[in-house]
Amino acid sequence: MPSTECLPMTQESLETTCEVRVDLSAVRHNFRVIQEKIGSTRRALAVVKAGAYGLGLAPVARALRLAGCRHFVVAFPEEAFALRALLKDVDIYVLSGAFEGMERQFLSQNLIPVLNDEESLLRWQSVAAGAPCAIHIDTGMARTGLEPRDFERLLDLIKSLNTVCLMSHFAASDLADHPFNEIQRTRFETLCALVPSVPTCFANSCGLTLGSAFWGDFVRPGLSLYGLAPENAAEYGLRSALQVRARLIQVRTIDAGQSVGYAMTWQAQRPSRIATVAMGYADGLPRDLGNKGCMWLDGQEVPIIGRVSMDFTTLDLTDLPPAQGRVGDWVDLFYDGVTLSRQAQAAGTAPHTFLVGLGPRCARVYEG
């Protein structure tokens, strides 16, 4: 007969059932490793947009500052205002630039807009005079930034500004052998040579692995600050700073032929031991991982079976020893760059989407 074990309602078990554990000592370590790798003549600009990739802006930014970071990157003004409230003595670059009418607020908070089009260049020249700015050049991403022909056309205007950095962004840096990386590098270098006194910024986390010719004077690490990129981050001396885990809240044995989950997408081919995990798509677990992804129990991989639902996910523990996998035990969704990459591939998405999608029910726990 099928048997069931349920989570007892104790105070300890109710404290947290899903956790995002962040090792701030690893964040500090990783920043220092990156800075050492690029050398003393280059600077690392820490990317902390989207709440430091979902890990928590305040604790991560403070940890980076303690590690010696003086330069930060965010996407939007509201992120910059929040960061400035935390850190008074750092440079903050805002990738979206200063929206019309916000220039004076940028000046009062000492923010550096990354200017992306002719209108924003003209507004900054008119309102901000000699205040610092950065300029984004689109070398092939076709997302933000001046196209090369516009950069050349506006060269006199650009030279009249206090431009402290020229930026561009790789479209395929995670594909080390992709020929477009070299095409973008050549385009960027050609345009930057027109204003040789201005520092350049090109490489993101994966761009750091392409070699110093692809870096620029500044680099912009994001996932690598957390030891999650590149996939083989440990080979570069980076430490994983993140572990996402949830508790088993029920373990049961079901008969062969019994189905599991909505729409009966998985059916037991043998008597099976099934565990329910306190994490679902409301917590950031992609629904596409149903019957595709896995979790790790004591370091051993166990498959996700059936559909991922809003609050719960089911695992097949049948191949584990009977004593392994008890109610209240933790299972990992991922714990380093390799396991994160595997989950992203199974879900057909990018690693970043896991991090920024982690919901508020996942308690943030900071160590180090």
Question: What tags apply to this protein structure?
Answer:
2 domains; nine-stranded mixed sheet; seven-stranded parallel sheet; TIM Barrel; alpha/beta; 368 residues; 12 helices; Lyase, Ornithine Decarboxylase, Chain A, domain 1; 20 strands
Write the layout of secondary structure elements.
Layout: E1 3-6, H1 11-15, E2 18-23, H2 24-38, E3 43-44, E4 46-47, H3 49-53, H4 57-66, E5 71-74, H5 77-86, E6 91-94, H6 103-108, E7 112-115, H7 118-128, E8 132-136, H8 148-153, H9 155-160, E9 162-167, H10 179-192, E10 200-201, E11 218-219, E12 242-254, E13 259-260, E14 266-267, E15 272-277, E16 294-297, E17 300-305, E18 313-316, E19 330-334, H11 337-347, H12 351-356, E20 363-367
Parallel strand pairs: 2-20, 3-11, 4-5, 5-6, 6-7, 7-8, 8-9, 9-10
Antiparallel strand pairs: 1-12, 2-12, 12-15, 12-19, 13-14, 15-18, 16-17, 17-18
Q: Report the major sheet.
A: 9 strands, mixed
What is the 3D form?
A: elongated
**How many alpha or pi helices?**
12
Distance between the termini: 47 Å
| Reported CATH architecture of the largest domain | Alpha-Beta Barrel
Percent of residues in β-strands: 15-25%
Number of domains: 2
CATH homology group of the largest domain = Alanine racemase
Would you count the extended β strands for me? 20
Could you state the oligomeric state of the chains shown? Answer: single chain
Structural class of the secondary structure composition? alpha/beta
Q: Low-confidence stretches at least 5 residues in length (pLDDT < 50)?
A: 6-14
CATH class of the largest domain: Alpha Beta
Over all CA atoms, what is the radius of gyration? 24 Å
CATH T-level fold name of the largest domain: TIM Barrel
Relative helix content: 25-40%
Summed over residues and divided by their number, the pLDDT gives a mean of 95
